[in-house]
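From the shared-data thread, chain only:
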Amino acid sequence: MGMSKFATFADYPKESLPSAEAALLTAWRSLERYHDDLALVGGLAVHYLTRPAAGLLGAVTMDVDFGVALGASGGQYGTIKSDLAGLLGPRSGRANPRSGVSPRQR
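Structure, as tokens:
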């Protein structure tokens, strides 16, 4: 089931944008190995790239949307699912596939 879109700006919960920003920071850190293959899209991208004009409402969102380059899906970095689950995070002690160097060796 997908996220719901509300009919008007006023229908969005007041904490929706700060909550989406917190989720972005959490997900971004978990996906460190994929930064070159990710782009922020959707409502948060609009929020960061625009300024509301006088008298108009700003961007609103309740989720984080990433565009993923095809290179990330080739399996050479493990899986995004495992990184988000914390199975192969930067503190795991495993070698970084890009550098071949363990985080403890840096």
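Residues 91-106 have pLDDT under 50 and may be disordered.
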